[in-house]
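User: Mind token order:
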Amino acid sequence: MAEKKRTLWPIGILLIIVLGIILIVITIVISSKQSIDTDLTFDMNRLRVNGSINTIMKQQNMFEKHYNVRISTIGDKSSNAPLMKNPYYISPVPRNIPEGDGLLQAGDDITFYIEKKDDSTEPNIFKDPVLIPDKLKFVRLDQGEKKTDSIYVQLYNGGHDTYTTKSLVLPKQGYYQVRLTILVAQPIDPNVKIQNNQIDEDNTEIIRNYKSYPDKFSFHEVYFYYWIFNNTQNHIQVQQ
């Protein structure tokens, strides 16, 4: 009877498996002893960003407990005007065209009204703050070209906590997101009073006036968004 030939492939497979296990164990041991150092700069930057976001949200929430910011395209300067929203809670682009407030015709003014809440039970950390709408931007998403158009518009003091644009003409028809930044100037010295009562005074001059006293005021910003529909298509640019 012929002698059967011995096959070595089962032993070879077993040796490969054992060798693989040994290499894995060696890799783990080396990695544990020589681990990659953490990027300290990245971690510190991340902590600073998180801290800044938390500070901004805290200031925003505290401001909203004591003040409403209203917007009107029909000149409503009362508590009936629509409320602007925290950017975190802004809704997507509306599908329906608004009637009345929220609908902008060529040459219309937009009015912003800062309203102090009388029914707030929260302690107010803002002691006689100066509230100055600083930046006003209109943002529109061009669906065809998939790009965002941004237009900055000057605001003017209308008196009695109201601020307005002047004969606003936006270049394209459709929805624009109104983005309002309000500068909150908090007096450090309660005896400091700066009067800015001139009607139609340029807010840039008002802000420059307050910022000339960095030792008298601390500053931070709050943000409010709202959707408006521009009902007239034009081919001219807004005056910035």
